[in-house]
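Researcher: We're reviewing a set of sequences before deciding which ones to prioritize for further study. For each one, I'd like a predicted 3D structure that I can look through quickly. This is 3-keto-5-aminohexanoate cleavage protein. If possible, include the structure in token form so it fits the rest of the review sheet.
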Amino acid sequence: MKKMEKLIITAAITGAEVTRDLQPNLPLTPEEIANEAFNCYKAGASIVHVHARDKDGNPTQDYEVYKEIKEKIEAKCDIIFQPSTGGAVWHSPEERLQPVELKPEMATLSAGTCNFGPDVFMNSEEYIEKFAKRMVVLGVKPEIEVFERGMIENAKKLVKKGILNGPLHFDFVLGVPGACPGNPEDLLYMRNQIPSDSTWTVAGIGRYETPLAGLAINMGGHVRVGFEDNIYYSKGVLATSNAQLVERVVRLAKEFGREVASPSEARKILNIK
Ligand code: KMH
Ligand code: ZN
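Model: Here's the predicted structure for 3-keto-5-aminohexanoate cleavage protein, in token form for your review sheet.
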């Protein structure tokens, strides 16, 4: 078997859809999000994927809230700060793009439209291109979020048009109700469609989280876990923290003989300058 890069673990700690009613340990305030990011960093995460919440705990893409979160995280550790540009389904594209203006090292770039539970997650070609161009101007590495197969083609088109340069980094978000499920064959199929010099991670939603993490560790991919994707530790048992979910991935990696990347090692793997 080819020697694999070290494993990058992303902690997606809040999301836009989960509430405290569903997961009592969900971090909401900038302080809570920064503390949770630090705990995930100590557990082995090298990237934190962040969704901001307002004072009432509702999703917000407000620049100032993201700024506060970014500064609070940076004061604690060097974990890679990756804000969401996906936001919530009801945010406008202009609202969603705000955290990119903070020039984070990375940000997400959703590469197409899909059903998202009862809603529609809108990403027109016009706005995918606008988001990508702004990220390039500001030196932000996009993590291309793929919820359906066609989104890989949309990302390749960005390269063809000269908007993005490879190597690309993909996140296969598998198991969102209404979009692609997260069976092993779904991940294999997705992985086989991306340019060969790409890096990729997988975010398995709900019950898909741990099986897909195990597969990605063994396939040379990377892994995302956290309350945004899955609030449970096991069937019917809520996780006590995001760090608990990160710790499980670290244990799996160890058992499978794959080393875990530090943030600086993750920067090298992802070509983040
Ligand atoms: N909350 C979803 C509608 C991202 O962060 O870039 C979109 C999402 C993707 O979570
Ligand atoms: Zn997200």
